[in-house]
């Protein structure tokens, strides 16, 4: 089939999984990068928000209208990135065990891990909270079927971390070194975590980069070949970002990032967290392509008008 479009019903993790499936079969297909729309059924739905498909589907949209929106949506490109972890050679067996590799057959190359990033990559306090949520969901998966419940758990974990782990990453600026496009970036002593953004939506719709302002950084998009690097100073700062009171600390912008982790730290790639031993981390633009569908602004305005009409009003078919 030379041309077709895909609807993905799920959250950011489901979108990433479908993209990885397309990566595996795309080279054999006539249409190697089919355009993809999202019906947001996850908790955060950050990519769906950027693409104007909404913060979360609640079931009040007619399926036929969704199909119309799919047909009339605009095709745009989405940058994708490869995150490579090179663990220190002094502990290959520990790294191999964490990765589920048979240590009897493992080589130093086996411990290198590569991930495709579509949304964002975090180290430190942000990833710590993500890891706590992941572990809680793994222990009781049946309790995490509601978007509101999931957000409530995240809020409770944030309060718990604020009380118990407020100073856990106070040495972060010494444990981590950052280099962007070959330039060393000094981390402020207050920073307890880094968030590397490909899209301007993080943590269920927050703009960690902040609104456009007069500084030396270019206006970011998700197809400009650039990543934005922000620092967060703790759980309270993250809560302020998510509530829109503050933004993250703008640190850098570039297309090639190198990070040195001198101690074990929590990391997360597109919401998938783990504890990472000391390592060299490289983030570079991937050769993999993604074509996404962004909902037309005119369609959004029409939907808002229709929802405001009285239930008994007759609407002219289009």
Task: Provide a concise account of the structure shown.
This protein has 318 residues and is an alpha+beta fold. It contains 9 helices and 16 strands.
Keywords:
318 residues, alpha+beta, 9 helices, globular, disordered C terminus
Could you give the distance between the termini?
Answer: 29 Å
Order of helices and strands: EHEHHEEHEEHHHEEEEHEEEEEEH
Structural class based on helices, strands and sheet pairing: alpha+beta
Q: Would you count the extended β strands for me?
A: 16
> What fraction of residues sit in β-strands?
25-35%
What is the spatial order of strands in the main beta sheet? 5-4-15-12-7-8
- Cα radius of gyration in angstroms: 21 Å
Number of discrete helical segments: 9
User: Mean of the pLDDT scores?
Assistant: 82
Q: Approximately how much helix is present in the residues? A: 25-40%
What is the 3D form?
globular
Q: Which consecutive residue ranges, at least 5 long each, have pLDDT under 50?
A: 101-108, 304-318
Give a quick account of the main beta sheet: strands, pairing sense, barrel closure. 6 strands, antiparallel
SSE topology:
Blueprint: E1 5-10, H1 12-26, E2 35-40, H2 46-50, H3 63-72, E3 74-77, E4 81-87, H4 92-98, E5 113-117, E6 120-124, H5 125-139, H6 147-164, H7 172-175, E7 176-180, E8 183-185, E9 193-197, E10 227-232, H8 235-243, E11 249-254, E12 256-261, E13 265-269, E14 272-276, E15 279-285, E16 291-294, H9 297-308
Parallel strand pairs: 1-2
Antiparallel strand pairs: 3-16, 4-5, 4-15, 6-9, 6-13, 7-8, 7-12, 9-10, 10-11, 12-15, 13-14
Helix pairs in contact: 5-6
